[in-house]
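Quarterly update from the structural biology core.
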Amino acid sequence: MSFIFRARNWVRNELIRRVLPIVPERISNVFRHSLDRPFGNRYYQDRASDYDQLRENQPSWLEEYRALQEIAAELGRGLSVLDVPVGSGRFFPVYGDLGWSVSGLDVSDEMLEVARSRADDVLASTPELMKGKATALPFSDSEYDVVVCFRFLQSIVSFGDAKRVISEIARVSKRYAVLHLDVRPQGLSEGSYPKLRETMRGKLTWLQVEHLLRSQGLQIQKKIGPMPHESKNEFVVLCTVKDG
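Predicted structure, tokenized:
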């Protein structure tokens, strides 16, 4: 069933992309908005169980992992980390190698179960995993040394919610945030900010990204990338909490 769902959406999106250049703008804008809608809340049931398997051979997937390994090693051992959304717990081996205490949050019960099963093999202590929304993190101010957020801000949530998530990340982190971002390719002129209901999807230049993060309490310290991806300009960035 999941294969049929993915195939149907791939065909739909490809048709829309091919149609956009040849139809009047008033019509293309309707379809373009459809493509800009957040993916949100899709990782349930069998889509959770095969989430890693469908992605583990992607060059970008592997490079994201290496980037986090590099940054985490620089930050040092024995820290506390919140991974949001924690998903399948793909980064648990990184945290385990450094003796980090791990918490994770996700909206999908199924993804949390996958993460729990992975934790048994790679973490020295049981992680605190809970269901919840990244736009309203159920944690105290400055509760974690590090907050990690991958494959989420650019397409899973709307731009309006992405701003809320970044603000929440800055609130609950006392020191660092590691974010995975899709940035507008160099050489393209600066565009307008997305509408609040649309996704970020590589619309923001570095200048706009830096302004967005600063406005929510984060300051970029390091960039790794771009990740090897045929159609996106993705980076992993290490941020510090302003005045943190």
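The chain is about 40% helix and 20% strand.
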